[in-house]
Amino acid sequence: MIRTVILLLIFVFSDFYNPERxxxxxxxxxxxxxxxxxxxYTFRNQFSEDVPATLDLIKDMGFTKIEFSNLFGKTSTELxxxxxxxxxxAPSYGVSYDALVNDIDQVIEDALNLGAKYVxxxxxxxxxxxxxxxxxxxxxxxxxxxxILSEHGLKFNYHNHGYEFRPYGDGTYFDYLVQNSNPDYVxxxxxxxxxxxxGHDPVELxxxxxxxxxxxxxxxxxxxxxxxxxxxAPSEYDVPLGTGQVDFEALLRVAQNxxxxxxxxEDETVDVVERVPVSRDYILSLTN
Length: 288
Hints:
Layout: H1 2-16, H2 19-26, H3 30-33, E1 37-39, H4 44-49, H5 51-60, E2 65-68, H6 76-86, E3 89-95, H7 97-102, H8 104-114, E4 118-121, H9 132-150, E5 155-159, E6 167-168, E7 171-172, H10 173-179, E8 187-191, H11 193-196, H12 202-208, E9 213-218, E10 220-221, E11 238-239, H13 248-255, E12 262-265, H14 272-285
Parallel strand pairs: 1-2, 1-12, 2-3, 3-4, 4-5, 5-8, 8-9, 9-12
Antiparallel strand pairs: 6-7, 10-11
């Protein structure tokens, strides 16, 4: 009798915490791929001149979701009103490492005002070269912030930036960051450009950690670029999606069985008004 109960509990427990089932439930498949968002930094020059007009421009391009990492002179409440008027959403809110650690109450207020689900950080302050103590410090800070955010219904994601892929042990610093952080409080937003720039493969990385990435910045790297771990690159390295080194078709296939919820197109050049619709059309072509 006792043995039967134990076996039953093991069965229930295993099914409840089945990671493959959790991933399948998290991934939204074609529905999300047919509605990619855009990163506000893409339109930073336009936002700096006229926020309402830039939101109109983004909506006219066919987008419904924007990841903000700047409020562009507005309060989060004012920006939310402008979004609501246009039927736009801000599912992710990017903040600095310093704000996350030292002003998390304001981060929470702004994220909730915007209607965000995720809070994202895209840079770990460090002296070159990035090292294991930087990673360990980030893990401590991210887990503490992620715990606090979770109490308010928010989730934390760290956005890679290239320097984390320096070799360490049997892998990289990024592997260490993933493997030694608590997934209850710390997960990730993949930037495909900043996986490719240091010489790694976004498809392989997502295949290795399908349950740890919740969002993706879709950005392409020009062919022929020399790889490095600087975390910095001139804007001309950024090319329209589908014309560079990233295999987006393979990435989107793998994403079907991952925890990814949002895809955001990012373009750091000055020609975004012409280039972003081209990138969006390319991604949509992969879902048809």
